[in-house]
Amino acid sequence: MSLDTPRTETRPERLTAHEARRRLEHERASRLTQLQAVDEAGPDAGEPLMSAQKDTIRRVLAEIEAAFARVQDGTYGSCRGCSRAIPVERLEILPYTSHCVPCQRHAG
Fold first, then answer.
1. CB atoms within 10 A of CB 94
2. Which of 54, 61, 77, 99 is placed for a possible disulfide with 103 were both Cys, Cβ 3.0 to 4.6 Å?
3. Is the pLDDT score of 91 beyond 80?
């Protein structure tokens, strides 16, 4: 297929709750594996860097849990900044995001 050929497949506007949960479960498992690897690296692995990595992984895990709550209450996929639908392509890449790109840029 050429890059000039228009795509005929249509993408859904939103992920289904099942698909969102599946992606979030995958992200959670990946982050838990990362956290375990950092813990197993031991004390000689550069403590300040390891501590920062652990903090980042824990922050993402908290975002993932918040996304599970949004799936449960029906607000998953809606931007918390502007209330519009977050594009499905963004959710496929970053399933725990709570903002569309423009609102994320303004938030921080």
1. 17
2. 99
3. yes
